[in-house]
Amino acid sequence: MILPGGERVRIRPVRPTDGAALLELHANMSPESVYQRFFGLNRIAVEKYVLDRLTRPPSVGHQSMTAWADQTLIGVASYEQTEPHIADFAVVVADGWRERGIGTVLGRHLASVAQHHGITTFHADVLGGNVLAERLVRDLGFTSTVHYDGGVGAWDIELDHPTPSTPSLGPAAHP
C-alpha cells in the first residue's frame, strides 16, 4: 500500500518472530494512547496482552495483522472470537503514523480474514471521546451500531453488511 505522502506500507499476518517489534510498538505508545486503547495506564498488563494474545499462532478464533514501514512495525489489528460468529476487534497504530488510513486498511484486511473464518460481527469497546477510533469504525465501511454506557461505546460492526462504498479486498487478502 502507498500512503498519500508516498510512504510504502506492507500488511501481513503476525509471525512468531514479531514479538519484540510488537512489544516495542506498544512500549512507544503515549500514555494517552495506552489509556484510550486499554482503558488504563498499566504497562505490565499491556505487555502481557502482547505476549499472550498478539503473538499466538493464528486460528479460526484468533488473527492478528501487522503494518510495516520498511522494517518498523507501525500498526497491528487483531480479533478474538468470543461467541459463534462474533469477535472482539482491536487496532493499534503508532502515534506518529495515525490519521493516514493504516488502521482502516488493517481493519479491512482483518475483516476479510474474519469473514473467511465465519465471523460476521466485530465488537469493539471504545472510550467516549476517542474520535480516531470512532472514525476508524465508520471508515471500515460496514454497517455498525453503538450503545454508550458509562462513557464507553459498545460498537457492533456487521461484516456481512458493507456500506455501498466499501472496497473489496478479494481473496488475495486471506493469509
- Provide the succession of SSEs: EHHHEEEHEHEE
Class, according to the CATH hierarchy?
Alpha Beta
Largest sheet: 7 strands, mixed
What is the oligomer described by this structure? single chain
| Strand-pairing-aware structural class | alpha+beta
CATH third-tier fold name: Aminopeptidase
The assigned CATH architecture is 3-Layer(aba) Sandwich
| Poorly predicted regions | 167-175
As for the number of domains, it is 1
Description:
This protein is of the alpha+beta class and 175 residues long. The chain has a single domain (10-166), classed as Aminopeptidase (3-Layer(aba) Sandwich). It is built from five helices and seven strands. The chain has a seven-stranded mixed sheet, sandwiched between helices. Helix 1 (19-27) packs antiparallel against helix 3 (43-54). Mean pLDDT is 85; it is low at 167-175.
Brief digest:
The chain contains five helices and seven strands, in the order βαααβββαβαββ.
Key terms:
175 residues; Aminopeptidase
Topology, element by element:
Blueprint: E1 10-13, H1 19-27, H2 31-38, H3 43-54, E2 62-69, E3 72-83, E4 86-93, H4 102-116, E5 121-127, H5 131-139, E6 142-149, E7 152-162
Parallel strand pairs: 4-5
Antiparallel strand pairs: 1-2, 2-3, 3-4, 5-7, 6-7
Helix pairs in contact: 1-3
